[in-house]
Design brief:
It is a single chain. It is built from 7 helices and 9 strands, in the order αββαββαββαβααββα. By secondary structure, the protein is an alpha+beta fold. Strands 1, 2, 3, 4, 5, 6, 7, 8 and 9 form a 9-stranded mixed β-sheet that branches. Helix 2 runs antiparallel to helix 3 and helix 3 runs parallel beside helix 7. The longest helix is centred in the middle third of the chain and has 27 residues. The protein is globular and about 65 Å long.
């Protein structure tokens, strides 16, 4: 994402109206299905878009607004930085993770998962994230800081990938649109809260998992939809935690 504001442009309503027409008059055929996977960013313009099948994973902090009550701002900044840094590090270590975004206290990634085994790997990403939080909480407790609870939501489906911003401004961002992104975000906002476990996945995810990963999840009904949840951890990270976090 390019977010640096390089030049100041005078806003003119006539130019704005012209840009609106240019965008809205774009040919619908320029929005194509890309069956070969997620395209590179340089193939996107301000007039086209690509439909791709992806897995979206969201992780956010439960009740993050309450953290501001008992923490000074430098403390809160350090807590957030540690959380965000390691979420990004874990997602970025997987080649199939093609996009990572930070939105407040939420980190979310877009994963290219053409094979069923790839979706199992996304569950492994969730396990790493959960185990990382255990290690982080140990370090927070040593500093006498508040600990963190997180929620993770995962879904698989079709998304529209578009380039958004202002042409010529140097300010642009890849935007992911579709139910797969919205649902994963929605599940992350429910996970780890109340009776819900740390990780919640959709039926699309569950049906593509191997038997081992299925055994780690239990079903529940959310309205008229079946979801699957679990407290998944990464064994080698938990072994490290037991040995080093005493």
């Amino acid at each position: 994402m390019e977010s640096k504001k390089e030049t100041t442009y005078k806003y003119r309503v006539e130019d704005s109206a012209s840009r609106m027409d240019e965008i809205l008059d774009a040919n619908d055929n320029d929005y194509e299905d890309n069956k070969s996977g997620i395209p590179s960013r340089d193939k996107l313009t301000y007039k086209n878009g690509c439909y791709v099948n992806v897995t979206a994973l969201f992780i956010d902090i439960v009740d993050s607004s309450k953290l501001t009550d008992g923490n000074k701002r430098p403390t809160l900044a350090k807590m957030y930085r540690a959380f965000l840094s390691e979420c990004v590090a874990i997602m970025n270590s997987w080649e199939m993770c093609k996009e990572i975004n930070i939105n407040g206290d939420c980190v979310w990634g877009v994963f290219e998962t053409p094979k069923k085994s790839d979706i199992d790997d996304v569950i492994s990403v969730a396990a790493q994230l959960n185990s990382m939080i255990n290690i982080l909480n140990y370090k927070l407790m040593k500093k006498k800081y508040d600990t963190l609870t997180v929620g993770i939501g995962i879904d698989y489906g079709r998304a529209l990938m578009v380039k958004a911003g202002y042409s010529g401004s140097g300010i642009n961002e890849i935007v992911w649109m579709g139910d797969v992104v919205n649902t994963a975000c929605h599940l992350a906002n429910k996970a780890g809260r109340g009776y819900r476990r740390q990780t919640i996945v959709t039926e699309n995810i569950y049906c593509n998992l191997n038997d081992h990963h299925k055994s780690l999840l239990s079903s529940y009904v959310d309205g008229q939809v079946t979801r699957y949840e679990g407290n998944i951890i990464r064994k080698n990270m938990e072994d490290w935690y037991k040995e080093n976090c005493k």
